[in-house]
Amino acid sequence: MAETKKVGSVAYASRDASYFEKRGLIRHANAWHLWALGVGAVISGHFSGWNGGLLQGGWGGMLVATIIIGIMYLGLTFAIAEMSPALPHTGAAYSFARTAMGPWGGFLTGLAENVEYVLTPAVIVFFIGSYLTGIFETPDSFQPVWWILAYIVFVGLNIWGVALSFRVTLIVTLLALVCLLVFWVSAIPNMDFSRWALNVGPGGVELTEGNGPFLPNGIMGALAALPFAVWLFLAIEQLPLAAEESMDPKRDMPRGIILGFLTLVVSALAILTLNPAVIGIGSFALGSSGEPLLDGFRAIYGDGIAKVLALVAVVGLIASFHTIIFAQGRQIFSLSRAGYFPTFLSETHGTRKTPHIAMVGGACLGLAVILAVWFLAGEENRGSVIGFTLLNMAVFGAMLSYIMQGVSFILLRQNQPNIERPFRNPFGVPGAALTVIIAAVTIYFQITGDAAYRAGLAGVAIWFAAFTVYFALVGRHKLILSPEEEFALEHQAPAN
């Protein structure tokens, strides 16, 4: 009979070695694999999603928003670069918060990330389906079939084995970057920056002759663009979820995430500068486009090769879809292994040692959400609900997790100064504090933004309420001494 140990408001049930043998992972990833995991997760946001901010603040406002969000991610990535090798566990954000703030803090942080990692691939697969519908000229009603096929293929690749998963991650990430590089080189001789990039006037109107103001809606317009600038970096924080599959997490985690962040900074500034400036497009038209990179290619090369260009755009979506499926599985795995979620979800494949149940469970949940929206929202509202409401739910979950991770870093610096830190964040507590502040400001502008965005917050509230009730009534009485929990208890983390 399993023994139970009470610690504060939670109870730990003992498990023998067989419990963890059924939940084993294989170390395979090097620094380049980790770099690809971080960059690949984000890269679809450079193909589309960021451009909505052009109508909020014009090109100048979007640039200011990108710089502000870049500062937030600078503080976050360097904080993670310190915490992840110091706490090299699959739990990542949950692990950091668990050690800093106890089981409730760890659970709520993990839950915020869970919102992001379940819903983000669901939104990405919607865009994949939209592109494939145009390429293969299938009826609109066939889109759910594309989603199901995409989930089957990429969940299957992730289940097949960690070596194959990281190999595919590296390949699709490099292909996506090559697509972007081709666009940048093509755009340079085909741009007129003042005429096209600066064609948004006060109130978001189009200036037919361009040469508009740098900040057409002032600083408030730039702040309103913050949620859109997030898409240029969103999900790089998933990289530490591969900690227990990294060959040398203490060395490679800081290298992978910092190199990934620097890669994304270069790509973000390039796409923001070149895409709106291409002759014949402009910031005004691009601001409402669902496929800004594809529009840029069409303006340069014409519509004759539209289907080929659409396939190019799909590469970026596939890179992010594949890598976030990886993160989704590890995130659910870690919370399940520790007992926060039902423990059967954390069993790994007998021979391939991948968290197949967690990946299938997360995929089924995300697919169920998007299918429910598809059939219930009505034909006219499907695109906006999936493309805005669900997307905003994912961003909101991410911002909450950033706040919690920033606070975790500060508390770990103050309360756990003796933890071994193979890498030390040069920006320290001020950098983490800036991350918390900017994330909170971004949430404010999400709340005060479009009604479709605000509707997503109700969905997140329901999500949190359902899982919090489960944890309060069941989960907290059945926690397991997983590596994250043992580390936290050994370092005298608070019990509540």
> What would you report as the Rg, rounded to the nearest angstrom?
22 Å
Number of strands: 2
Q: CATH homologous superfamily?
A: Amino acid/polyamine transporter I
Overall CATH architecture = Up-down Bundle
Number of helices: 19
Q: Specify the biggest β-sheet.
A: 2 strands, antiparallel
How much β-strand is present in the residues?
Answer: under 5%
Return the string of H and E elements.
Answer: EEHHHHHHHHHHHHHHHHHHH
- Relative helix content: 55-70%
Mean pLDDT: 91
Q: Tell me the count of domains.
A: 1
How far do the termini sit from each other? 27 Å
Label the structural class.
mainly alpha
Based on Cα principal axes, name the global outline: globular
Strand order within the widest beta sheet: 1-2
- Low-pLDDT segments: none
CATH C-level label: Mainly Alpha
Quote the CATH topology.
Amino acid/polyamine transporter I
Keywords: Cell membrane, Membrane, Transmembrane, Transmembrane helix
Membrane topology: Multi-pass membrane protein
Subcellular location: Cell membrane
Transmembrane segments: 32-50, 62-81, 115-133, 145-163, 170-188, 214-236, 257-285, 305-327, 357-377, 383-404, 425-445, 451-473
